[in-house]
Structure formats: structure tokens, C-alpha cells
Amino acid sequence: MSDQTERPRVLVVDDERNIRDLVGVALRFHGFEVVSASRGYEALEIARSGSPDLLVLDVMLPDLDGFELCRRLRAQGDDVPVIFLTARDAPADTVHGLTLGGDDYVTKPFLVEALVARARAVLRRSGTRGGAGESPAPDDQAVLAVADLELDEVRWEVRRAGNPVELSPTEFRLLAFLMRHPGQVLTKAQLLENVWGFGTQSQVVETYISYLRRKLDPHGPPLIHTQRGVGYALRPAPDL
Question: Model's pTM, two decimal places?
Fold first, then answer.
């Protein structure tokens, strides 16, 4: 296999040519393959047909904004990692972007080296080729189990009481981290650092915990418990 096929392919979407050029040069220098688009619908077509490994996506585009583009990709089952790169820096925008299915949120102005590092981190967390080339540690378990909940990290499958549970990539990573620390109260800061790889608003954690509860609780007693003012723990409900 050639080096070219090993390089992760990044789609950079921004209506400002200087931003596209700046990001493209930096990513190519660090070993990424780069394609670009200046409009939302153009990017949507490339994403659907070109199978990029990562999107670096502006929010304020002239036709289809980045939030709506991400929403459409997720609605059609496309889990390509997305880094929002935008001048919209309000906390509500950050939360909105991440809850839509974004993997990171970078505000302008930005440091290109920091963006490259975040691109690598997102690819590593998503398991996409070219992320970091890291293999799981030898003592990592492929299948995690707590009570009647099972998570297969190789097949990316989750079952509760034998019932399949469909999770988004972020939901899967959050649940996996909770299951690797059964019974331990994990702070929101710990979850942000280990699941998202960066600090952001705690509302994102609360939102994704609620998503998990809605999907897991219909199949049995609640497993994710809130420690008020601290964080969350995954543990079986006590026997009555």
C-alpha cells in the first residue's frame, strides 16, 4: 500500500479562500491529503461521494450553514468526524455544534499547529485511518460488561439485556469510558478530557448523558447515576 493511500483525507470547508489555503497548507505539511469546498452544498456532495476521513467545517457559509450540513450528514448515518472552525464563539454555539454530532469546536482566530493537533486527536479517538497508528493496550478488553450491559469495542456494538442499542460515535465513546471505570464517580472535567479530548461547556456532558439514559433505561433499571455537584457513575442498581 502506498503512502498516499495511508494519508487521512480532510475536507476543508470555508467561504474564505485565505482560510482554506492556510489550513490546507498546514495539513498537507503534516501528512494529510486535503480537498476543499467554499459552499455548504458543494461540501455535502463531496462528503457523500468522496468519503473524507475528517471535515474541518466553517459554520457561516453562504448557502447551507455548517450546523445544518453536519445535521444532514448525521441524519443519513454518516459518522465522519467533524471539527467546526468558526468565528461564532458563544457558549451556546459550541454546545449546539457538539450536540449536533460535532467532534470538536475551534474558534477563529486560531493557531494552525493547534488545529493540526486537534485533527489528529479527533481521528485517533474515532479510530479513523491515519489518526495516530496506535493500537489498544494489551490489557484492554474488547468486550466491556456491567450488569446486563455489554459493549464490544471491536465490533462497535452495544447490548442491554440482549437488546441491541444504537449509539452515535460520541455516545459510544462516553459509554465505553464510563464502563471502563464501573462504580467510579467521574467528574465532568474528566469526561470532557477523555471523551472529547478538550475542555468545553459542561452542558455537553449533561446532554450526552441524557441521550445515553434515553437509550439504555428502557431495557432495565437505570445504570448511570448522578453524584450531585461532582459527576456521574455507571453501576448496577442496588438489589431491592
Answer: 0.66
